[in-house]
Amino acid sequence: MDRISQLPDFIAHHILSCFDTSDGPPINLVRMNVLSKIWFHLTASFPILDFTIYKFKSRNSFFKYVEYTISRFCHLNVPADKLKLWANIRKSEELDIVNRCLILVLKNGVKELLISIPKYRLPNILLYVSMLKSLTIYSCKLPSSLMLDAVKLKSLVYLFLESVRIDDEVIKYITSGCPLLQQFEISYCHGFIRFCVYGHQNLRTVGISDTAVEIIDIDAPNLSKLYVAGVDERGPPQLNLATCKKTSIVVLRRPKSEASYRLFIRLPRP
Predict the structure, then answer these.
(1) pLDDT by residue (tens digit) across 206-232?
(2) Rounded to whole angstroms, how far apart are CA atoms 124 and 103?
(3) Can you give the residue ranges of every domain in the chain?
């Protein structure tokens, strides 16, 4: 038996995480399946699930790989450290695979989720993944039951939304259901003009860029940084940060007909 096969699973998983998959699908992980039953188990239980469609030669091979890998992993009934799913959907069969696989992972639990699927409606179960610590969403639609059911993301620390349509109430609803949230960033999101967060004790950083926000009203005594980027000729938004005694504010504005940004900074109160 080779010495690597005798290592504890968590050390072997760390070794597997060092494989470079930036230029293509994780071929080396797939090849390891045939080495032995031990390596088949290790690759099956590898808790980092990374699926990016443009790394595959065909759409069919991508969705087959997603379905096979997630089914094999979730069969072990263990949570995932990370799920990255970067794709687009053209057919109902592809939608079925994405729905089925994503729900399987969310049911078992995941600590970090990054998903980019244009116009895809996220499943309602996403609102109740108690171990989720980091959530990054690009171009998806938020769960349909968001304003009907309570959000229970009790471990979420980091939230990033880009090109996601939201309204004023959604922001308050999400933050109220994420009591440990420390960093909240929004970019190119439309549908809201007010960013309001009330009574949040753990929020430390808020970033808002390239939106039409007009009013920022935050009650978070531990907020240390607020940055607003891409403000248009209307000027910076109205700020209400009366309880944010520790906050430094950075506002970047691109004036009309000028190429450079103007920078506005307010330092924390003494």
Answers:
(1) 999 988 889 999 999 999 999 888 766
(2) 9
(3) 170-270
